[in-house]
Design a protein that fits this description.
Length: 201
Amino acid sequence: MTPEGESNPFLGVRGLRLSLARPEVFVVQLRALARAAAYGAVKIMLPMVTVPAELTAARALLHQAAAALAGEGIAHRIPPLGIMVEVPAAALAIEQFAADFLSIGTNDLTQYVTAAGRDIGAVARLADPANPAVLRLIAEVARHGERVGIEVSVCGDMAGESAHVALLLRAGIRVLSVAPNRVGAVKAAIAGYRADTATPD
């Protein structure tokens, strides 16, 4: 469903942009998620959010889907609605987003902050999640979550790299989403972290 011939798909119609451009498909997905939420713990995370109006539009469609289900007598529940923080514009103005939870997508955030495509070998060294500018944004989002009392997690390759765990903990991150084969190494890195000195053991 993505548009053909985009000159730069990473800056084009992807993520929530695509969902809002195809509401007839998006509403079907939201209906399914609302129905599943009646039977278990379901959360909806919206990718590639750039401005608050996109979150507002998605929430409106979710409530529209829930209202239709109620009218049809179908069991449902409105699940928490969160956003991926991977666009610098969202990270810099995170206080404007009325999300139920936040997840920082470090792969895209890093490539957008450093202007270095993660799939281009010639600039791979620049696409560094430990770049001070990336870490500053991560810390600001974490502080916002603590201020308003919502969960902030980190996903993406950075969360699963032992060498970066201390950086994320120091930035205020307390929830990491990692691939199963990285759980042991990340647990070990967390165990070796000294919170009282804010440095790794």
